[in-house]
Structures are given as structure tokens and as C-alpha cells.
Amino acid sequence: MADLLESTGYKIPALKRGQEVTGKVISKDRSEILIDIGAKSEGIVFGREFDAVRDLAAKLTAGDSVEATVVYPENDAGQVVLSLRKHSGDKLWKELEEKIESAEAITVVAIEANRGGIICEYSGIHGFLPAIHLHTQISSPGDFFGKTLQVEVIDVDRDANRLIFAQKKDAKELEDVKKLLSKIEIGQKYEGEVKSVLPFGVFVQIEDGIVGLVHISEIAWEKVDDPTKFFKVGQKVEVMASAKDEEAGKLSLSLKQLAKDPFEEISAKYTKDQKVTGSVSKVVRGGIYVTLEHGLEGFVSASKIPPNESWEAGKTVQCMVESVDVASRKITLVPYVLEKPIFYR
Predict the structure, then answer these.
(1) CATH numeric code, 179-258
(2) Residue 240 host element (H or E)
(3) pTM over the 0.90 mark
(4) Residue 15 pLDDT
(5) What would be an example GO MF term here (predicted)?
(6) Which residues pair with 241 in a beta bridge?
(7) What is the predicted pLDDT for the residue at 252?
(8) How many CB atoms lie within 10 A of CB 195?
(9) How far apart are CA 164 and CA 156, in angstroms?
């Protein structure tokens, strides 16, 4: 082919690493794909590059057009080593967008549990299954690793690299759960048993065998970092039904709603311009969180901190109360100074 092209005076352009090319599949087997890209030799997809696109490879046949990326312009056999990862990714993201419309169930593999939910993998793409869209109960986070789940795609944004799933129930299971949920009264207290403790909360089984989620934010009025410090599987607890979605078959439970918010009583001790002493608990881009006493934090805006001062976690600081907002459970602080500077607000 190369000799024939040269005889016609056509010059074959040199290929560069990272260059995108278009070609047609010549053949494929269990370990490689040969592609005609119009170069002096065929292109080849093999090894790790083939393993990365096995799902796509299974669908390809001779004559199919593909877009590829040059990995090596020439290997020892004189072939152009190609990658189909980008092409595979383009097709996969498009398929995922179509699955939102069809609500078709897909199978994903759980690879990690965190405070928000489960990180899953689908054909090499990582997606997120939020805790509120999870139905499967297990006893510990490690049990999720490698577990397959049936989900539906509810949000796709390739530019933001965002892929969100919701676990899917079969029709009969969903109907059974709907019947049980119809008996649940929002605001009612229920006795329950802890079925699993995870980074994002606790699954509790209440009457008639229905299971609901106590999200980590609903465990206590104080911030909870690790639910395992409070609960264990089999523990008896009293919860309140805080929300339900009968169509989706979901029940949300709360523990903290059964207790009086301590902020109301504690915050009553703090008034505007009061001098307070606390410890820096967390430094964020917008400012500093200061622990005033157990279960109570105040916030100092970064704009109020003098540029020559460095506030680090653990440091003891003196502040003044700027405002107390009981409704939003916030106490705003400013650094304590002997005299308020000119133009201070």
C-alpha cells in the first residue's frame, strides 16, 4: 500500500503521539483490533488499551468507522499503536444520556462508601449513588466493595464529569414497599433496630419490616463525623419518620428530631458585642469556625480577620459576638479588638 501511494506521488503524513485519527476496523480478535487509518501501515489496539475498551470492542465489526488516538507512531512491528479510550468514552457518555430518557436499569460495581453515599463504576466511568437513592442494606462499608447494584441514571454531565445513579427496585418489591409506606405517619415515633451502620448514616428497620435511613445529618444536633461511634448492628433505637416518597419507595428517619435543639438554650447565653474565648476548630476558604463550648460553634468571616494574623486549627482565640441567629442556628463572631477600627460595621 505504501509503495502504491508513493508511485502516485501521494505523501503519507507523519503521525505524532497524541494525534487523533479516523479509520475503519479491518479485523479483531480476543486481544487486538486492527484498524486502517490510511497510513503506511495499519493501526493496532492491544494490551492495556484493548483491555480498557473491551465493552466497545465486543460491539465492533469489520468496516466500522472509529476515531482513535495515536499512542506510538510506530512499534517494533512497524504498526501504529492506537487508543480507542476517547472514542469509547464518547459513545459511553452518549449512551448514558440516552438511558436517562429510557430509565433503563444498568449494572454498576460499588467500589467505595463515603459520607454522602456510594462511588460506583460503570464501564470504567465513576459515578455516584447518593445515600438517599440507596435501598441495599449491609452491615459495614467494606461489604459494599465489589458488590453489583441495579441502578438507573438520573443525572449526566460530561463536561462536569458528573454521573449520578439511583438504585432501582423491581416492580413487585416496589409495590410491597409502597403498601408499607402508606401506613407510616410523618412525625410519628417508631421503635426500630439498626440494620447497618455506614459513613453516611444508619439504616433502621421499623414496624412491618420496612427499612428507613437516618442520614448522618439527622443523628444528632451536634456534628457527627463517624456513626460507628454511636451505633452498632442490632441496637434498639427510637426514631421519628421525617419524610417518605411512596412512589420511589423511600423512607427518611430522624433521631435528632426527638430531642430538643440545644442551640436555643445554649445560644441564649450569648449576646451581641459579648467577649468570648474559643478554639479554632476548622479553617475554610470563607473564614474560621471557632468552638465556643461543646456542641456550639461560631463563624468568623475571612474578611474580618486582620491580614497579619494567622489562625490555625487548635489555636485559642478571643472574639466578640456579632450576631446570634436562632432560626438558622448560627453565631457570627469577629476578632476581639480593644477599639473598633474606623468604618467598622
Answers:
(1) 2.40.50.140
(2) strand 236-245
(3) no
(4) 87
(5) mRNA binding
(6) 253
(7) 92
(8) 17
(9) 7
